[in-house]
Design a protein that fits this description.
The complex is a heterodimer of chains A (286) and B (88).
Chain A lengths: L25 H15 L7 E5 L14 E4 L5 H11 L4 E7 H7 L1 H10 L4 E6 L2 E2 L5 E2 L23 H7 L4 E6 L3 H13 L4 E6 L3 H7 L5 H10 L1 E3 H4 L11 E8 L5 H13 L14
Parallel strand pairs in A: 1-2, 1-3, 3-4, 4-8, 7-8, 9-10
Antiparallel strand pairs in A: 5-6, 7-10
Helix pairs in contact in A: 1-6, 3-4
Chain B lengths: L1 E3 L9 H5 L5 E3 L11 E3 L10 H5 L5 E3 L25
Antiparallel strand pairs in B: 1-4, 2-3
The structure holds thiamine diphosphate, iron/sulfur cluster (3 copies) and magnesium ion.
Chain lengths: 286, 88
């Protein structure tokens, strides 16, 4: 085949395209960024298993031509934990939305970070529940209008990358879809990092977030997002007031420590002389 | 060369926003899908940085494919040494 095609299409299930994401939705761009990072990290595409929960962002694994698990809402990390412990050699990647990861799956998120299992999680934070029609999520900024906050949101949002770093993840970062280069390099680092790696990608949901908050076009949203982005090093020198409505980007954790699947394997070799994880349906005894 | 796939483009115009060289412009016509397609207006400005390819959410943009490292000499798109090393 010599016809020119987009460089990401060979990795995708092309019969399902165009995908269901709305025009300008950030999910498609995050998918590209992941594929580019995977190429840059020289990963084996056939060894990747993708796990996702429910949401617009969680549909990404369905468009990528690799093994994937589309699980229940908020539980992607639990399925991923089982998968990784059963087959330690798989490269497990979790795609999750902000609602999926931080509200219904909030506990799974902090405990996965605490246990430091070697998986990569990409959390697509569009600050809203996209799939169900624009309800507030735990990351919705103060003051935004949403279906369940018609007079504005009064809650203080979670800062996911900081939360996960605080919970003990060995890699945690936040980027936006308007700075692709940093995002790609960060996903590359996350893929290579042996431990729980979390990349929060702040992105656009023009259909629900934009429409309800007077940002009528994807480009208007992207312009606002770009103007509100501050690097972590600059943010450290800014006051609380100046940081209002700003998106702080950068790496919040990058420090290796004991990884769960290694620890488990070591423990079982020491105590029972072999691996305890059985990764075959036909083998029932250790 | 820059190619925009008309079947995949949904007309979000993020390519116009993301290209730092302002290579793209919006056409005045609307196609049968109701999309105002972008088109390449100033190709000579393009530095082949590839940002628009990654930023296009609909995988609609192709920039000079043969320059990509994973294309072999025959421009075989299926050739990628890291695509399949066999299952572990
Ligand atoms: C157990 C359960 N509760 C609620 C829902 C309804 N539901 C589906 S998607 C979703 C929110 C998704 O939001 P998010 O994770 O932010 O993804 P997005 O669509 O924004 O990408 C909810 C509440 C569900 N499918 N299952
Ligand atoms: S509703 Fe929002 S998150 Fe879902 S596909 Fe549309 S733009 Fe994307
Ligand atoms: S970014 Fe892609 S989908 Fe959006 S207008 Fe440009 S070519 Fe079309
Ligand atoms: S490759 Fe870079 S310079 Fe060329 S059109 Fe795309 S974004 Fe613009
Ligand atoms: Mg969301």
């Amino acid at each position: 085949m010599s016809e020119k095609t987009n460089r990401f299409l060979p990795y995708m299930r092309q019969d399902r395209l165009p995908h269901i994401f709305c025009p300008g939705c950030g999910n498609g761009a995050v998918m590209n960024a992941f594929l580019e990072a995977m190429e840059k990290a020289e990963m084996d595409f056939d060894n990747i298993a993708m796990v996702s929960g429910i949401g617009c962002s969680s549909r990404i694994p369905g468009y990528i031509n690799c093994d994937s698990l589309h699980t229940t809402h908020g539980r992607a990390l639990t399925f991923a934990t089982g998968l990784k412990i059963a087959n330690k050699d798989l490269d497990v990647v979790v795609f999750s939305g902000d609602g999926d990861a931080a509200s219904i799956g909030g506990n799974h998120l902090i405990h996965a970070a605490r246990r430091n299992l070697n998986i990569t999680m990409i959390c697509i934070n569009n600050n809203i529940y996209g799939m169900t029609g624009g309800q507030v999520s735990p990351t919705s900024p103060k003051g935004i209008v949403a279906t369940t906050a018609p007079y504005g949101n009064y809650d203080t949002p979670f800062k996911l990358a900081e939360l996960v770093a605080g919970a003990g993840a060995s890699y945690s970062a936040r980027w936006t879809t308007v700075e692709m280069e940093n995002l790609v390099l960060s996903i590359k680092t996350a893929l290579k990092n042996p431990g729980f790696s979390f990349v929060e990608v702040v992105t656009l949901c023009p259909t629900y977030f934009g429409r309800k908050n007077n940002l009528k076009t994807p480009t208007a949203m992207a312009a606002v997002m770009k103007a509100n982005t501050v690097f972590k090093s600059a943010a450290e020198r800014m006051s609380e007031k100046e940081l209002k409505d700003k998106i702080v980007v950068g790496e919040f954790a990058n420090k290796q420590r004991d990884e769960l699947s290694e620890v488990l394997e070591k423990f079982s070799i020491e105590n029972s002389g072999g691996k305890t994880a059985v990764n075959s349906a036909y083998e029932t005894e250790f | 060369m820059i190619i925009i796939n008309e079947d995949l483009c949904k007309g979000c115009h993020l390519c116009l926003f993301m290209c730092y060289k302002n290579v793209y412009a919006i056409s005045s016509e609307i196609n049968k899908k109701g999309v105002q397609l972008p088109f390449v207006k100033f190709e000579e400005r393009c530095t082949k940085c590839g940002t628009c390819e990654v930023a296009c959410p609909d995988q609609a943009i192709t920039v000079d494919l043969p320059d990509n490292w994973w294309m072999d000499k025959d421009n075989d798109i299926n050739f990628n040494p890291h695509f399949a090393k066999g299952r572990k």
